[in-house]
Amino acid sequence: MKPLLVLLACLLPFAALHAAELPLNVLLITADDLGYEAMDFLDGKVPGVTPNLSKLAAEGLSFQHGFVNNAICCPSRSIIATGRYGHNSGLFGFNKLSKPIPTVFGTFQKAGYLTGVLGKVSHSTPDAAFKWDYEHDFAELGAGRSPTKYHGFAQDFFALCKKENKPFYFMVNSHDPHRPFHDPNGRGKSGEEVPSRLFKPEEMVIPSYLPDLPKVREEYAHYFNSVRRLDDTVGRVLQALDDSGLASRTLVVFITDNGSAFPFAKANTYLASNRTPMLMRWPGVTKPGSVDKTHFVSEVDFFATFMDATGLPIPEGLDGRSMVPLLKGGEQDGRDYVFTQIDYTIGGPPKPMRCVQDARYGYIFNAFSDGKFKYKNNNEGLTFAAMEEAGKTDAAIQARVDLFRLRVPQEFYDLEKDPGCTNNLIYDSQQQSLVKKYQDRLRQWMIESHDHCLAAFDVRENPAQLAKAVANYPVLDKSGGTATEAGEEPDSKPAATDDKATKRKANRAMKKEAEAKDAKQ
């Protein structure tokens, strides 16, 4: 018996060494249109919304200043894929690569990793020539809204990786909480599941960038239903990972592609547009329950981070840099602000926006704002219809409606006092030195990153020249193809059709309510 024990004692260090040498897997889970305000572990005011994500945060590292660099689904996911800002990859709209550059999934595949994707496939694959090793999309996933389907396909993928004895890069993209939100009394999409918890309008705490109106509360509750179903999906996927036995050597990352699909959030450059829940769990590396309250990190850093964590070479030409020192509990200089941008939305002319923000202030440049052009997107729904109706008798709400549609060329906010960005300080005489500081900081980044919006920024005080710069804005190169997404109509058509129908429905409902009140009086 003693010789056997001696042999085992000798073999254990070799077994431990072999385990340490096993390649690290990467599981990236993304949400679709998730605002940070719903998260218990950030600034969430409604308790118990995301138990699985809160559990993941308790098991790893969460970033208080996590951001996406573009608050529109496709260009945001292209930044994750390339590690480059849109103006450096050419992916600043719903287009595909027109020239070959490294992608995170392509680099992993060439290194012998199995690559898998669930949901949002076209939006997450800017290289039209790339073929994932494992792929399932919208219809197969219950309209991207079936936690059960995600669980089953995740199980199959992990089993495939074990069978082939290969490490993996697995991108799991929920379609929640993308519009249409889960309305318990609505028709819903084919295959979607009922969330594990439903929310009532009276439970909602409306963020400051939206007015607290009955229809806003109703739609916000439906949004929270979809957020809960996202959380259900996260829980089922992580369950599949645990059951596979691969969790101990898998870096798990969670992020959203942009903020919530409401006015002044998604498809803009406000705090609510770009701030994201960002969670990372790296067993044996990240400290459970740790919170980084200092460093500003963003999706442009993911490519370099994944390469560094797995020991693969970091390609040249990336705009982001590795976050691994932060995952290990260290410090990094130059992470006290973040840059965000919009160039093109799903359709129409360019709508250039740029923003620089840190923990205290945010400066926004809206190149397209000329006092005439009306900005519209697919994120208006019942909420904006209610705002327009209320604006008829409420000047403050009408001012918000006008700002959303027309904007102003420049905005400046005290994010500590005004995270909803409702009080523009751009012309406050006491803030001009600060405004200049942030303008200079943004311009320096534009120069360093070769941003094509610099020409417009430099003539921002001259309306005629600014209009000319926007008219000559770079055209989106679609020679490599365009991103499409069957089944998500609000994300694959210009804003007009769906929102007009929604508004007509909302206006009819409000008219009936008004008539009912008049009848009682």
Radius of gyration: 24 Å
Distance between the termini: 94 Å
Helix content: 25-40%
Tell me the overall shape.
Answer: globular
Instruction: Count the DSSP helices.
Output: 18
How many extended strands?
14
- What structural category do the secondary elements indicate? alpha/beta
**Main sheet properties:** 8 strands, mixed
Spans of at least 5 consecutive residues whose pLDDT stays below 50 are 1-20, 489-503, 509-521
Strand order of the largest sheet: 5-4-6-1-7-8-2-9
Strand residues, percent: 5-15%
Mean pLDDT score, rounded?
A: 91
Describe this protein's structure:
39% of the residues lie in helices and 12% in strands. It is α/β, with parallel strands linked by helices and 521 residues long. Strand 12 (353-357) and strand 13 (361-366) form a beta hairpin. Helix 7 packs parallel to helix 8. The longest helix has 31 residues, at 214-244.
